[in-house]
Amino acid sequence: MAVLALALSACGSGGSGDGDAQEPAGKKTVTLVSHDSWAASKDVIAAFEKESGFKVKVLEDGDAGQALNKAVLTKDHPQGDVLFGVDNTLLSRALGNEIFDPYEVKESAKLGEEFRVEGNKATPVTTGDVCVNYDKAYFEKKGLQPPKSFDDLVKPAYKNLLVTEDASTSSPGLGFLLGTAAEYGDKGWQDYWKKLKANGLKVVSGWEQAYNEEFSGSAGGKQAGGERPLVVSYASSPPVEVVYADPQPKEAPTGVATGTCFRQVEYAGLLKNAANPEGGKALLDFLASKRFQEDLPLNMFVNPVREDAALPEVFTEHGVKIEDPKTMEPGKIAGNRDQWVDQWSSLVLR
Length: 350
Prior knowledge:
The chain is an alpha/beta fold. The protein has helices at residues 42-52, 64-73, 91-96, 136-142, 150-153, 171-198, 207-214, 219-224, 238-243, 277-287, 290-295, 297-300, 313-318, 330-348; strands spanning 29-34, 55-60, 82-87, 100-101, 123-135, 162-165, 202-204, 230-234, 254-271, 303-304. Strands 1, 2, 3, 4, 5, 6, 7, 8, 9 and 10 form a 10-stranded mixed beta sheet that branches. α6 (171-198) links the parallel β6 and β7 (202-204). The protein starts with 28 loop residues before the first strand and ends with a helix.
């Protein structure tokens, strides 16, 4: 899950200078495989590297669904030591394919109990809500109320306004699909998507394209000439448009349709057959640490799962707290996801 793609790439190999000339250089590098929206402060990563003795290498591997698919295909010879970005919509696929070795992080008691996975088969790292965002200026100019709910999105007033991500490859795209299934039931969601398609829905491959190219309300979308004032993104997206604006506006230029949200939790796991499992364990401990958890909001614009992690003021002021997001039991997601995605593809893409 993530909202900004800020690149971080630390030194890829080499020793840490501890004098152990017999240890292969690769053992001093720990490799994190992630979706494209991984981001962290350089000083926070540097502190981990200094304290642990491991250099961090980051491999960004597409959207969350694409990164997981590749991890499954390469599980006998994984690309890295830790995979980050598997959310609750995809976790059962990761666990079913047994790509992770169980590991309990040192401060697991600090992580929200509702987010933890039985047997410590994966470590919760972030949480957030997939929601439709809207371009405030567009709706003000048109004298049109922005949508508030799933029902609103199929009304004629919002024809040709919404862009979403492909549910078969994109984490927020899949989250939005599951939100509609939670809202309309196992069968009703299909009729809903037929109405969405008839109302001019546009589908693109992933979040980056949807938010930073197609959405008229984001800074990237404005530069790219985006024409869609509604986009599937996150409840925490509006602070992005404040933090990275120069000068910073008093109010975020984008809003959130709070009745369209689905609760998402992102996990990381120690990849089975990892070249550096000890480094992987240290990295997982770090992802669960207070230092990293408090660094999350203004880098990946998601919420920490650690109960004692504080949120920055700009994040709480301009983000939107969703009181009643749509949710779904992990077992139900596991039992229906692949079938629903196939049905969705037939309805929407063909």
